[in-house]
Each structure stands twice: as C-alpha cells, then as structure tokens.
Design brief:
The chain has 4 helices and 5 strands, in the order H-H-H-E-E-H-E-E-E. It is α+β, with helices and mostly antiparallel strands. The protein has one domain.
Length: about 140
C-alpha cells in the first residue's frame, strides 16, 4: 500500500508541476515532458508489470515467458512517450530498453498503421535495432 501511495504522490506532483508551469505561461516543451514520462516508466516499471500480469492472469491470458514494462517512444507525426509491456524469452526481454512506435498511413488517410517494435536502445531516432522474438503484450495509456 505504501508503494501505491508513493506512486500516486509522484504522479500528482508531476501533474501539478506541469499544470502550474503551464498556467504561468511557461512552456516546458516536449523534450522535458517526454523525459519525465520515461523517468516515471523506468521508476515504476516493476509495479506496472506486476499489475498487468495480475490483470491478464485474471482474464485467462497469462504470459508464460518473462515480461517487463519499458517506455514507448513514438516516431512519426510528432514525438510522444508512453509505456508498454513486452514479453518473450528471458534472455531476449532483458535486452529490450524501449518500444519504438512507428506510425504511417496507407491508402491515403483510409488506414492508420501503428507498429510497436521492441528495441535495444532508447535512442529511437538513431540506429534502431529490433529485438526479434519479443512482442508487445500491453500498451499503457495515461488519461490527461
């Protein structure tokens, strides 16, 4: 229970800080916000991972291999950050540092495609190296 209270306190503090700064007319910028999200995902990845594993086991779709939560870093129209759970063999999951979200459109604007790719580095704008054999088992959204 103490850990949940601490998580809630950190999230509230970040939201209050960004809200207060925004109301004062100061723009933190996407880089700072993105770094904050990546920091929080890294900090609370074990708690998020345990929650997802409990949720999925309750629904009868438990993952048998290793899982962990990592930041999602978007490449496409704008820059976005979030979190995802990856799953696969332990030795491969251990090498995943982030999930690159690649976005595109097909057939004009008829289809929007999002590809979640487990990668070895958080530097997704540079040399992306996919971790084959690992998949994305959950995506975590934050309501703003």
């Amino acid at each position: 229970m103490r850990r949940k209270s601490r998580l809630l306190a950190v999230i509230v503090a970040v939201l209050l800080l960004t809200g207060t700064v925004a109301m004062a007319g100061i723009n933190l910028g996407g880089v700072v916000k993105g770094a904050g999200i990546v920091f929080l995902v890294d900090k609370f990845s074990e708690d998020l991972n345990k929650f997802i594993n409990t949720l999925t086991a309750n629904k009868g779709v438990n993952v048998e291999d290793r899982t962990k939560v990592v930041p999602v870093l978007s490449i496409g129209d704008g820059t976005y950050a979030g979190a995802a759970q990856v799953s696969g063999p332990a030795h491969l999951v251990d090498t995943v540092k982030a999930v690159a979200l690649l976005e595109g459109k097909f057939s004009g604007d008829t289809f929007r495609i999002k590809a979640y790719v487990p990668v070895e580095s958080k530097e997704v704008t540079k040399n992306i190296k996919r971790v084959s054999g690992v998949g994305v088992s959950a995506v975590i959204d934050v309501k703003l």
